[in-house]
Amino acid sequence: MCPMGRKWNNIKEKKAQKDKNTSRIYAKFGTEIFVAAKKGEPDPELNQALKFVIERAKTYNVPRHIIDRAIEKAKGGSDEHYDELRYEGFGPNGSMIIVDALTNNVNRTAADVRAAFGKNGGNMGVTGSVTYMFDATAVFMFEGKTSDEVLEILLEADIDVRDILEEEDSVIVYAEPEQFHAVQQALKNAGITEFSVAEITMLPQTEITLSGEAKAQFEKLIDALEDLDDVQQVYHNVNLDD
């Protein structure tokens, strides 16, 4: 069972609201798609990492021309190089944060992330200081089926997932990261083609709740980290829905 009742609809709506008037999210996906295409075949049917990024980009309504341009850039033999980095740190009241980045300038990114923590009430941790409290998890959210129907679909495909929940009008499936493509294909075979969430994320084993000044400071810290051009994902253990 998933130990948390994260409200995925609220998370998606908040991110969509934040990014709707900017091209930042498209630029970040463009970089991620370029890196995935360059590391393997530029064909998503032959490159599972690329296929995963494209599927996730679709849930954020990234335009097709952004996806195609990034793949073409990789095909063109660009010598641009990106490093995949993970930073760990702490926010107010023991809150835990993981920051994943793609960068062509490691020193710049490290300085930017450290500054974002330092200026907003947080501090960097050493490698491993936070990730042990999170679990890598494949998450899917979609409408049009009940949890019982989804369970039957997955059982028929011989797939045993971590959990299946219903939240408002949506079903949420939590699975092992290595099950991502198998689960998605089984759902697509059953006629589920639109996903509001389809990604591998880091879920905290337990959540904490902040209030008042600590909550406001934490939200400012997360916004500062997410606004950095090199940062792709920010994960944390704070329930911001309360």
From TrEMBL:
Record-stated family: Belongs to the TACO1 family. YeeN subfamily.
NCBIfam families xrefs: PRK00110.1, PRK12378.1, YebC/PmpR family DNA-binding transcriptional regulator
A Pfam short name: Transcrip_reg
First-listed, main subcellular location of the protein, grouped into a coarse class: cytoplasm
Record has DNA damage as a keyword: no
Annotated ranges, domain TACO1/YebC-like N-terminal: 6-77
Domain of life: Bacteria
UniProt domain TACO1/YebC-like second and third: residue ranges: 82-238
Gene Ontology process terms (BP): regulation of DNA-templated transcription
Residues making up the signal peptide according to the UniProt record: none
The protein's name: Probable transcriptional regulatory protein BT1A1_2964
Keywords from the named record: Cytoplasm, DNA-binding, Transcription, Transcription regulation
